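Narrative of accomplishments. A recurring question from our advisory board has been how the design workflow behaves on a single, concrete structure rather than in aggregate. To address it, we present the structure tokens for one chain from the evaluation set, followed by the sequence designed for it. No filtering or post-editing was applied between the two.
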């Protein structure tokens, strides 16, 4: 039987080697945890000021440029670039009662916006007509959630506008977000989310997303990793990290992705959106995904603990097995024969 200290040394050495391989393999994903995204944040003060000036302009009250803060001219004073289109998705054109108030809040607050509710039938027809190369992947997705995710990237790339999940109601006018070529919201603990997104047509980041959707259309056995790594927030968060690394330092502002912080997204009187109970994802797989997403840190911790306990048990059994003893300990336990009995060479 192998000594316990020897078992632990072998076990730790193997996992350090395995960890090194994983770090190299997933280095882009790991960099996302340390990335400095501060330069891309839209300051809350800038958003509030923009809303105030848009309101004053609607009342025909002029604003002197000399009074504008130094940090504002990068946005304010230019024309809006995102088209006034609101995109949402659902199975049919009949939205469930629990989300009608959220839907109506966005429509009524933006009477001069075009509103499009993408049904499952409309979504498939759109892909077949404009992006036929992707139709086989679109149809092959095992979960409707993946199709609901994918269609939002395609229509935003094609038409531009702002996508909003059905369980997000509008608290503020979206006009002040139209000045940024691409807007995503920050999500905890890292990355960006896909429940609210705004962009100009043909933005390079959305082109980057579309070019990677087919490559990411893989099964990871369980619903949560399959959805999150193929079309969900984790997939676009990893793509966001890669996209940032590919951007030249002198790239134009139009290629950047601006980040909306949590307090400007929801849960405050100054936020753009308000939360309605329920998930706008399709079918029963949504509840499992949402539950896992809320308990992601606990699930990861439990998974690591279970893995290490199980793998150490397997290592211990293997190290105590006869095969191991024959391979590694046979020389140590072999009794040396007297010199007189050893054969001459």
């Amino acid at each position: 039987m192998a000594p316990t200290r020897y078992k632990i040394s072998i076990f730790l050495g193997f996992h350090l080697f395995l960890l090194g391989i994983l770090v190299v393999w997933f280095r882009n994903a790991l960099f996302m945890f340390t990335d400095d995204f501060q330069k891309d944040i839209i300051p809350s003060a800038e958003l509030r000021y923009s809303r105030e000036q848009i309101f004053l302009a609607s009342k025909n009250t002029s604003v002197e440029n000399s009074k504008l803060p130094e940090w504002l001219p990068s946005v304010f004073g230019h024309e809006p670039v995102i088209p006034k289109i609101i995109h949402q998705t659902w199975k049919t054109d009949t939205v469930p009662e629990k989300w009608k108030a959220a839907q109506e809040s966005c429509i009524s607050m933006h009477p001069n916006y075009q509103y499009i509710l993408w049904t499952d039938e409309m979504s498939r027809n759109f892909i077949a007509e404009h992006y036929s190369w992707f139709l086989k992947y679109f149809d092959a997705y095992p979960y409707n959630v993946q199709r609901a995710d994918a269609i939002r990237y395609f229509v935003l790339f094609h038409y531009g506008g702002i996508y909003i999940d059905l369980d997000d109601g509008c608290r503020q006018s979206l006009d002040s977000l139209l000045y940024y070529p691409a807007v995503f919201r920050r999500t905890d603990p890292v990355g960006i989310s896909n429940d609210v997104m705004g962009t100009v047509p043909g933005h390079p980041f959305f082109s980057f997303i579309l070019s990677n959707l087919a490559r990411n259309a893989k099964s990871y056995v369980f619903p949560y990793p399959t959805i999150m790594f193929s079309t969900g927030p984790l997939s676009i968060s990893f793509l966001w990290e890669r996209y940032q690394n590919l951007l030249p330092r002198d790239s134009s502002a139009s290629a950047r992705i601006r980040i909306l912080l949590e307090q400007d997204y929801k849960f405050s009187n100054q936020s753009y959106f308000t939360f309605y109970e329920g998930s706008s994802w399709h079918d029963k797989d949504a509840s499992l995904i949402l539950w896992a997403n809320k308990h992601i840190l606990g699930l990861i911790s439990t998974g690591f603990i279970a893995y290490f306990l199980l793998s150490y048990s397997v290592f211990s059994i293997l190290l105590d097995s006869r095969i191991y003893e024959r391979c590694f300990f046979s020389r140590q336990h072999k009794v040396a024969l007297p010199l007189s009995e050893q054969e001459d060479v």
